[in-house]
Every structure is written in structure tokens, then in C-alpha cells.
Amino acid sequence: METILHKLKLLSIAIIITVLASRAYGQPPQNDFRALDEKAQSLKEEVLQLNRDLFLLEEELLFPATTQVVVFLSMDVGELFQLDSVQLKINDKVVTNYLYTEREVDALFRGGVQRLYSGNLRTGKHEIVAIFTGRGPKGRDYRRGTTLVVEKTTNAKYIEIKIIDDRQKQQPGFSVKQWDQL
Fold this sequence. Notes:
By secondary structure, this protein is of the alpha+beta class.
């Protein structure tokens, strides 16, 4: 699969060079810089569109919808828990370890969503475990996990793990949502 992507990238580079060369040498030089600037902008748009197409093709080849699983992390309020790190396991295999900076935690606190993991899973049942470490209420070290068993079908599976404040218990909690499609 990597060789196909490599060949596609080389082909796209060759096409871009050919287009640039034909445009540069195919017409007599002009003193009109505006026309040259418009052509450069047009080429830039073509290159950007080609790059988008290649990115989508690469995503499709690496993560086909029939096996794709994406796990996201978000926060709701976050006053009872200061996130330091998260470890994500799928079927007892660690797939992500992430250590957060202050800015990243702030972005999550303000409503940001992080893609923790994007990968492939066969159809069937799979266990996903997320282990969170940080500071809990009263500045104490806090380590807590949440487990989810998902049934992977032939559709892409999207999972959101949300850190929430459980005011009743005065500790952080975790909620999990699943989508088959975004």
C-alpha cells in the first residue's frame, strides 16, 4: 500500500513539473506581471486541489471505512480534574500515550476536541481502555480509567471520550459516545 502511495506522489510531482515546464516554455515571455501572477495563482490552486485529492486517497487507502476507528477526547467544564496525560489501549495493546501541555489542556477546556487515535480494526467486539492521569480535587494526584467494549461493524466507528465534572461525587467522570458516522 505504501508503494502505491509513493508512486501516486511521484506521479503527482511529475505532473506538476510537466505543467509548470509547459507553461513556462510554451509561451513567449511577457512583460505583463499581472498575467504571470494570475497564472501562478491558478497553478497554486491546481496544486492545492491535487494535494487535497492525494490526501483523501491516502486516507481511503490507509483507513478504509470498513475497518476505520477514530477515538476523540474532549472536556466538559474540567474544574475537578487537571489533565496531565492519557494512555489508550485497544484489546490490551497500547496504541496512544499522550502528555499534555498547559496550552493543549486549555484548548480542550475551551471546547477543543483532540483526535487520540485513528486506525483499523476488524469487525467484531473490541475493548477500549483509556487511562487518565492528572490532578484531582484538592490537588491530589489522580489516575482513573474508563473501559468500553465496542462492536465494530463494516462502517467507520467514531468514539468520543469526554472528561466531565461529577459535582455530586466531587470528582471527575468520563462519558463515552459512539457514532457509526459523523
